[in-house]
């Protein structure tokens, strides 16, 4: 069933909002990289610098790539559904790999330093989010890609998948802001109150994470930009990408 | 226009979900009270205990009452719209008063202790949320209650009001979890890693806040429980409340 297109005005706003979300997403990764590489001393797979792998991987995986995977159904809203689903799944695999590297880094760091594990609210939320995210990935894979459930089950699960997908993404952003708060107080402590460059930059990273989360949530919850269902699912992705580019050029 | 009722199964789930949200909301207030009154030493309008007014008022105002105000359109979904709007507005006034007391407490506390203001990510987000929340309250009042905009403007603004209302509520919950993290590290520091009762209780408060936020978001974003529009808006609230109670008793 080809759904009716929303009025042109609503469609013209989509590329601008997607562009804004992309700028905010890239800003998150850039500020995360500057904070860990410049202010926190860079990366290593041992010693003090091992910790820095954790926030950067989490920002890249559980915020940036996770958000991109959600947005894909709006960016390629005229594409063949199967192709879009496969890209959605692949981007989520990337997010999961980054998250696992980030988790291994922080557990390893705590282990070698003799720090206790899993005592803070950030750590409880973080572990919970990654586990639920993995369960959501498995269910999504099973229902929508392989083995692929019956149409009624797919339809019933779709609304749960989209709600919990977005809810976990938002919780992931919130968990990142808690982790940022925790690390800043442990690392710079009382100096935080003197408005140092590191504190300001890390706060801006927090605002960028929240802004990216809000932009993704806004784009995916508007009715007018929902994915269009197609009868014929054969048109190549590249052709449709051309159409999306044309729309952007409007 | 009287909208078609969703199937009975979907309606029967609503009271259970509302009950769950209420239990989680009350748990937030209870855990917030135990944490500040028992573990942090209670309340006073001067000295060290002044600080404790801040988290408790923020949990009551910007989380619990804010969430209740949003849920009201689902709890009283069969009521006369004007009555529900007025209750929605009144509960939001309560939330705003609690938030202002909470803000005055923390600014006063910082002032008398000589602590710097507004340096942390929590403080930036918190101040931003309260200001935007107040703007949203004013716009809602102007568009929907007094002076009341033209139907087309109301309808155009309604989707913005509901999105930003929920988004600011979620940001408010996230800001609370950041504040909790900040205060715990400043107050119990290294002991946090020894799994003390205070740390566990405060982490549970954080989980309750997130749970309440998720329950509210779930109930208000499901299509099947949207507020029903009425042609005749005269039926008394009490009559409809009776109807809601009957549904719950099913």
TrEMBL record, chains A, B:
Residues 20-221 form the Cytochrome b561 domain. PROSITE patterns: CYTOCHROME_B561. One of its GO terms (cellular component) is chromaffin granule membrane. Keywords: Cytoplasmic vesicle, Electron transport, Heme, Iron, Membrane, Metal-binding, Translocase, Transmembrane, Transmembrane helix, Transport. It catalyses: monodehydro-L-ascorbate radical(out) + L-ascorbate(in) = monodehydro-L-ascorbate radical(in) + L-ascorbate(out). It holds the Pfam family Cytochrom_B561. One of its GO terms (molecular function) is oxidoreductase activity. It is found in: Cytoplasmic vesicle, Secretory vesicle, Chromaffin granule membrane. Its cofactor is heme b. The keyword Heme applies. Transmembrane reductase that uses ascorbate as an electron donor in the cytoplasm and transfers electrons across membranes to reduce monodehydro-L-ascorbate radical in the lumen of secretory vesicles. It is therefore involved the regeneration and homeostasis within secretory vesicles of ascorbate which in turn provides reducing equivalents needed to support the activity of intravesicular enzymes. This is Transmembrane ascorbate-dependent reductase CYB561. It comes from Petromyzon marinus. The gene is LOC116954731.
């Amino acid at each position: 069933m080809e759904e009716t297109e929303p009025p042109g005005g609503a469609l013209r706003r989509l590329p601008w909002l997607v562009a804004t979300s992309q700028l905010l997403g890239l800003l998150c990764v850039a500020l995360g990289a500057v904070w860990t590489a410049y202010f926190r001393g860079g990366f290593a797979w041992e010693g003090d610098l091992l910790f820095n792998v954790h926030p950067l991987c989490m920002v890249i995986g559980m915020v940036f790539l996770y958000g991109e995977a959600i947005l894909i159904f709006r960016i390629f809203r005229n594409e063949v559904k199967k192709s879009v689903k496969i890209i959605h799944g692949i981007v989520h695999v990337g997010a999961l790999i980054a998250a696992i590297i980030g988790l291994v880094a922080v557990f390893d760091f705590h282990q070698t330093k003799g720090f206790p594990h899993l005592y803070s609210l950030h750590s409880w939320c973080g572990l919970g989010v990654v586990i639920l995210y993995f369960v959501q990935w498995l269910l999504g894979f099973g229902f929508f890609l392989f083995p692929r459930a019956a149409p009624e089950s797919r339809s019933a699960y779709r609304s749960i998948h989209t709600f919990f997908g977005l809810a976990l993404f938002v919780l992931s952003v919130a968990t990142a802001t808690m982790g940022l708060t925790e690390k800043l107080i442990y690392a710079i402590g009382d100096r935080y109150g003197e408005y140092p460059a590191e504190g300001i930059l890390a706060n801006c990273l927090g605002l960028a994470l929240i802004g990216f989360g809000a932009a993704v949530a806004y784009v995916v919850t508007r009715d007018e930009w929902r994915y269009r269902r197609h009868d014929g699912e054969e048109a190549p992705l590249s052709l449709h990408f051309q159409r999306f580019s044309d729309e952007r050029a409007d």
